[in-house]
Amino acid sequence: MHAMQYEITLPADHDMRTVHRRIATKGPLLDSWPGLGLKAYLVRERGLDGSPVNQYAPFYLWRTTEGMNAFLLGPGFRTLCADFGRPAVRHWIGAGLRRGPAAEGSAAAGPAGPVAATRLTERLPEDADPAEAVERALAELPDHPDLHTAAVALDPARWELLRIALWRADAPAGVPGTRYRVHHLSSPELDRLPVGRHW
Q1: What is the C-alpha separation between 112 and 102, in angstroms, rounded?
Q2: Beta pairing partners, 82
């Protein structure tokens, strides 16, 4: 499993309805993309959920590198780059996955699909054992009735740990991290991503 995200920050006065329309139009194009575990179309809007910015920040869990490469080097991402400029694409190696109660029977966005997400990244101290940090993060993945999917991933270039969780309702109070709204979920191969620890 590979985690991936890019963030496109937009002007403070940007009409975010244009982003919503883009997602409604283009989101379903990845509903059957080979090798894609899930793509959550994440959005932050200035003044909502404590966000200081307007941002389009889709998050991916890839089952195969072939699927990821085909997307990044294909026409869809090329069009995004033409519209917004080429964003820096962050990439993490997958360390673990949990599917929550809200993911049962939900292959795509809908009544039981996620509507919110939280993402937390942390740099590991120089003296931290990465394996222990990952084990701890996996043990701390939320166990909540509104949890759809949660994952832990690691960037070994920055030694940065990522935790992401998708929720079918507002994220519970006290869950740390940046908060997003999920405007669509493509999850063609979510059920093929292995749950639990990935090593």
Answers
A1: 6
A2: none
